[in-house]
Design brief:
410 residues, alpha+beta, N Utilization Substance Protein A, Chain:P, domain 4, five-stranded antiparallel β-sheet
């Protein structure tokens, strides 16, 4: 019973780790073989018999009987006198099997065994956690706030698994307290050492896509497909949807009556403004829809270089650009085109790149990034709007405005 009692003491914590007895016994055999190898130099001549039903295992040491005084390898050989203490009728050349009790390994070895067993079970547990969450990559997951750090929030799920929500994967308006439930997407799972690191994200475009699947039955059933999703987390998103069923209005089905269906998604994302548009293979029409709510007068496409020159009435330009330049930037990401905006009916305008001698290229690119490609498109904006739209300093903007005004005053 000595072995059973010791093994039960080793494995008393197994229930907390949800490890089955058969797996535990396999780990035990591995651990004991390591201990035998450390004590005797090798374990080839040991038989370990596992009895998972009884929760027991037996260790037998096999040696060859040699004449007294001729023992060269005590692990592999046993003297005739010692062998006959086990069985009085043993003869030289016969095999002797002797049971090894765990207590015979010594107190230090047993403590080391226990520590090694704990380590092996944790390793087994971590491997299972890694495999489980690896299969959940790209899926929505909910966990509870356990600890709030400067660069990340540590979450725990119902099984006690630790999940990390980094600061840069949080929506800027997110604010969580300990005990709050947090929903996100399992973005990645990595093994660092033997411990799995599970990263949750609320900013990934796929999170928005999965929320659509969760909240809109037609998307979940596959009647409506999501072709593309682009986001500025917490600010604005554009979702292109399509359907093979002509009887379904995919945009209407996603938005719902008075926005009823999309409302819960918007709320989950910190009131992120979501534009749902019909997908089409007609690039010109796709860009027109992507720049909504602006109404476009005409479009000139360069399909080879993936650029689009869009003509709008002056009052529509700010709608096309959007707050912070988000609308035009997301439309470009959604369609794959670099979109340049031009005002209809504006004469004697000059492209900003013509001022490269006086204005640095990186400044011109920053204005172009928010759809301001010409001198008049910049001059028509208020100074406060230019500061808000771009990442430029007020002094830099004033200098640009001064240069442009001088051009038109000449």
């Amino acid at each position: 019973m000595e072995n059973i009692a010791l093994i039960e003491s080793f494995s008393e914590f197994k229930d907390d780790k949800l490890i089955d007895r058969v797996t535990l016994m396999a780990i035990l055999e591995d651990v004991f073989r390591s201990a035998l190898k450390k004590k005797y130099g090798e374990d080839d001549n040991f038989d370990i018999i596992v009895n998972p039903d009884k929760g027991d295992l037996e260790i037998w040491r096999n040696r060859v009987v040699v004449a007294d005084g001729e023992v060269e390898d005590p692990n592999q050989e046993i003297s005739l006198a010692e062998a006959r203490k086990i069985e009085p009728d043993f003869e030289v050349g016969e095999d002797v099997s002797e049971e090894v009790k765990l207590v015979d390994l010594g107190r230090r070895a047993i403590l080391a065994l226990r520590q090694n067993l704990i380590s092996k079970i944790h390793e087994h547990d971590n491997t299972n956690i890694f495999k489980h969450f690896k299969e959940l990559e790209g899926e929505i997951y909910t966990a509870e706030v356990h600890h709030i750090r400067h660069r990340a929030i540590i979450l725990l799920d119902d099984e006690g698994n630790e999940i990390v929500l980094p600061k840069d994967r949080q929506i800027p308006s997110d604010f969580f307290r300990k005990g709050d439930n947090v929903k996100g997407i399992i973005e990645s799972v990595e093994l660092k050492g033997n411990k799995p690191t599970i990263i949750l994200s609320r900013t990934a475009p796929v999170f928005l896509e999965k929320l659509f699947e969760q909240e809109i039955p037609e998307v979940f059933d596959g009647l409506i497909t999501i072709q593309n999703v682009v986001r500025v987390p917490g600010e604005k998103a554009k979702v292109a949807v399509d359907t093979y069923d002509d009887r379904i209005d995919p945009v209407g089905a996603c938005v719902g009556m008075k926005g009823s269906r999309i409302h819960s998604i918007v709320r989950e994302l910190g009131n992120e403004n979501i534009d749902v548009i019909n997908f089409t293979n007609n690039d010109q029409l796709y860009i027109t829809r992507a720049l909504s709510p602006a109404k476009i007068t005409s479009i000139k496409l360069d399909e080879e270089n993936k650029t689009a020159e869009v003509m709008l009435k002056p009052e529509e330009v700010s709608k096309a650009i959007g707050r912070g330049g988000h609308n035009i930037r997301l439309a470009g990401q959604l369609t794959g085109y670099e979109i340049d905006v031009f005002r209809e009916g504006v004469e004697e305008d000059v492209e900003l790149k013509e001022f490269s001698d006086e204005i640095e290229d990186w400044v011109i690119k920053e204005f172009s990034r928010v759809g301001l490609d010409t001198a008049k498109s910049v001059l028509e904006q208020e100074l406060e709007d230019l500061i808000r739209l771009t990442d430029l300093e007020e002094e830099t903007i004033r200098e640009v405005v001064k240069v442009l005004k001088e051009e038109f005053e000449e």
